[in-house]
Every structure is written in C-alpha cells, then in structure tokens.
Design a protein that fits this description.
428 residues, UDP-n-acetylglucosamine1-carboxyvinyl-transferase, Chain, 2 domains, four-stranded mixed sheet, 23 strands, 30% helix, binds shikimate-3-phosphate, binds phosphoenolpyruvate, EC 2.5.1.19, EPSP_synthase, RNA3'P_cycl/enolpyr_Trfase_a/b, cytoplasm, amino-acid biosynthesis
C-alpha cells in the first residue's frame, strides 16, 4: 500500500516560505484567458492536478496554452472561438473545473461530455444544472442530472434572476459564466457572501458587472480582453503552515505573498479570536490583495465558528479542527454541512482520523465539537483521497508523540504539489 511515515515531533519550525498560487484564481485565469481576445500571461499559476485538469479541458477545446519560463501563456480564442472537444473533458478531482465548465458549456454551440474521478463523480451537480436549465440549458447526467458523467448540448441561453440556495462560489460562478453568454441581464443573489474571484477577475478582463453587496448583475454578450494575471499564494495552502506555527512550541514562520481577499480570510479572524499571534503586512490592497504573514507559537483558546464566516474558511475547517485540539476549551463549528459534499465527507474524515490520534472530537449534523487541549499520539491514518485531510494529518505529525503513517498521500498534489518539500524547508 502507498503510504508515508512521518516522524516530525522533534523538529523546530522556523523560516520563510512562499506557498504556491491560489487554486481558485489559477482555474479562473485559464478559463477567462481562453475566452478572451488576445494573450493572457499568468504568473505564479498553481501547477496542482486540479488546475492542470482545467488547462487540459481548454486545450481539448482548441486553446493554445503553453508554459514559458514558469509562466502560463494562454492565447485566447474569444467567447465564440472554443471548439467542440473530440473527447470527453476529464475534470479529475476538481469540483471547480466541473461546475464552472457546466455553466460555460451550456451556452456554447456544441456537444460535450464532462467526467471526473470517483470522488468528483459522487459530488452534487444539480445545484448548478438546475438553475442552468432555467436558462434553457440542455444537460443530462446520472441520478436525474445530478452526477457526472454529464452531457451538455450547448444552446442559446436566456438570462434569469436566481437566488443561490447555498453560499457556493462555484454555483455563482457557473451562473455568471452562463449569464455572460446569455441573452439579457442575469442577476445572481445570495444571502451569504462567497469567494468573489470570478467577479474580480472578470472585471480585470474588461467585463462590466454591477455588484451591490450580495447581488451581481451581468449583461450577456460582453467580450473579454486578455491581460496579465498575478496569482497570489493560496491562503488555503498557507493555512497548514499557519497551523503548524501556532501549535509547535517555539515555532515562528513568515509566509510571503499570501492572498488576502476578504472573502477568504476567515481563518485569520478565527486564529486571532483564539489568541493566535499572527501579524499581517499588506503588500497590495487593490483587486486581489496579498501580503506577508508572520505567525508565532501561541497559547490558544477555543472559539465558536458559525454563520457567515463559514464560506470564508470552508476549506480550512479540517486544519482548524487540528488547531482546536491544541486550544484550551471547547471549540464548536456549526453551519458547515457543505463539508459533507467536498472531496470526501470532511466532517466524518476529520473526526474519524483525529480520534485515531487521540483527539477528543465529535461530529454533529453540520460541523464538529472539539475539546482541547489533547496530547496526540501516533498511528495509522488515511487521506480518503482528499488533499486537505492529507495535509492536516501531516501537520499533526509535528505534535504527535509517535510516528504517523499516512495512507495515500499522493492526493496532496491536487492543490499543493511540493507540500513535503516546503515542510522540509522550515523543519529543522
Ligand atoms: O469557487 C471556487 O474556486 C471554490 C469554491 C468553494 O466551493 P463551493 O463553491 O462548493 O462552496 C471551495 O470549497 C472550493 O475549494 C473552491
Ligand atoms: C473543495 C475543494 O475543491 P473543489 O471543489 O474545486 O474540488 C478544495 O480544494 O478543498
């Protein structure tokens, strides 16, 4: 069996690191660059499996995408220039690729089929397909058009007004992309704000959007202009090193050029509420803001996490759970049922695996309750093929009294291809 042995409890944690580029922005830069007129040059693109799947899909639709001197060069074909793919578009493990493509392909004049890996083929797609059908989309899939593989016969779409039932940036983005190709003005509203990279980046490509709080209006038929995109470091990847610095006695880390988009910085708010020592030095505050973070080992206390902050830290909940095991008191996480439909059921995976290491943690219907502080022991744990579960368990090995054997760590390259190299850089 494929596994890795982690004996990290004697390491000191110190130094400086640049985490890889943001996954959400990397996907969108390739997608919008492909749809644009002219060339897009992407700097600090995340070369993780998910974003490589996005590149592969657009190449199959006739877009020239190359890597030159570490930058990704996309020669856009315009909104009408994508070609019918001759083969299935394989979206791998990536929910973002599949859901945003569903929106786009619905409005393009050709036939296409989307397929994913076992995990992705079990994730719900009707959240995207249902509103797209209201726009006139022709989509078929397993389980009443809810699961991949899905077939799409692109057609002329008409604008809708739609209130998002879940605070999902993927659903919102799919509808914005469909709205871009539709006739009329599409309006997407939501009660709770989700990450706004689509809105920010489309504007950078010259698309006019009207945004009033949680309401987005987009006029169909607009064109995109190629542009240069700098992708800041992914705060969701930085989160693992933030946690490491907070929980390993004596640790101090500097993380450079981390994306600080406010729709993503829930983890920083939570860490501060827990008493964590984290300093922010903002480098750029316009557009996709970013800056450096300095994090030091801290005496942490429990907190409560629920409501509107959840979409601002949804992917960080596995690692927040680990932080909570090292915090005095009872941490309660609620309103996070979305975790059940990620790469795996992340509530169950986190609770099961952290319990194996001796944590005092229980699952609830929409979150978890963690009683700290616990001493963690070693043990054999598994990733469930989920990159974020894998990285969280690898971080746990720095505070566990014995060896951690991590089964199937390969999935980590989905969002962080050189995670273990980076860990080695700052562990002395
Ligand atoms: O739009 C995006 O890039 C993402 C949105 C979130 O998913 P949901 O839209 O399902 O909340 C997040 O969990 C995912 O990692 C990336
Ligand atoms: C949920 C995630 O991604 P996606 O939905 O794109 O598969 C993630 O990266 O944690």
């Amino acid at each position: 069996m494929n596994h890795i042995r982690l004996n990290n409890s004697n390491f000191r944690v110190k130094g400086k690191l640049s985490v890889p580029g943001d996954k959400s922005i990397s996907h969108r830069a390739v997608m919008f660059g492909s749809l644009a007129e002219g060339r897009t040059v992407i700097t600090n693109f995340l070369r993780g499996d998910d974003c490589l799947a996005t590149i592969d899909c657009f190449r199959k639709m006739g877009v020239k995408i190359e890597e030159v001197n570490g930058k990704i060069i996309v020669d856009g074909v315009g909104t009408t220039g994508l070609k019918e793919p001759e083969d299935i578009l394989y979206t791998g493990n990536s929910g973002t690729t599949a859901r945003l493509l569903l929106g786009l392909l619905s409005g393009l004049p050709f036939y296409s089929v989307l397929n994913g890996d076992e995990s992705l083929n079990n994730r719900p797609m009707s959240r995207v397909a249902d509103p797209l059908k209201l726009m006139g989309a022709k989509i078929w899939g397993r389980e009443h058009d809810n699961k991949l593989p899905m077939a799409i016969r692109g057609t002329k779409l008409s604008a809708i007004q739609y209130e998002l039932p879940v605070a999902s940036a993927q659903v919102k983005s799919a509808l914005i992309l469909a709205g871009l190709l539709a006739e009329g003005d599409t309006k997407v509203t939501g009660k709770i704000q989700s990450r706004d990279h689509t809105e920010k980046l489309l504007q950078q490509f010259g698309v006019q959007l009207q945004i009033n709080e949680n309401e987005i209006n987009i006029k169909g038929g607009q064109t995109l202009q190629g542009t240069d995109v700098f992708v800041p470091g992914d705060i969701s990847s930085a989160a693992f090193f933030i946690a490491l610095a907070l929980i390993v006695p004596g640790a101090e880390l500097v993380l450079e050029n981390v994306g600080l988009n406010e729709t993503r910085t829930g983890i920083i708010d939570v860490v501060k509420a827990m008493g964590g020592d984290i300093e922010i030095e903002t480098i750029q505050s316009e557009g996709e803001s970013y800056g450096n973070l300095r994090i030091k080992y801290s005496d942490l206390k429990a907190t409560e996490i629920s409501g509107a902050i959840i979409p601002r830290l949804i992917d960080e909940i596995p690692i927040i759970a680990l932080i909570a095991t090292q915090s005095e008191g009872t941490t309660v996480i609620q309103d996070a049922a979305e975790l059940k439909v990620k790469e795996t059921d992340r509530i169950e995976a986190v609770v099961t695996e952290l319990k194996k290491l001796g944590a005092n943690i229980e699952a609830t219907k929409d979150g978890m309750i963690i009683h700290g502080k616990s001493k963690l022991n070693g043990g054999q744990v598994k990733t469930y093929g989920d990159h974020r579960i894998g990285m969280m368990l690898a971080i746990a090995s720095f505070i566990s009294s014995g060896e951690i054997i991590l089964e199937n760590p390969d999935c980590i390259k989905i969002s962080y291809p050189n995670f273990f190299e980076d860990l080695n850089k700052i562990a002395q």
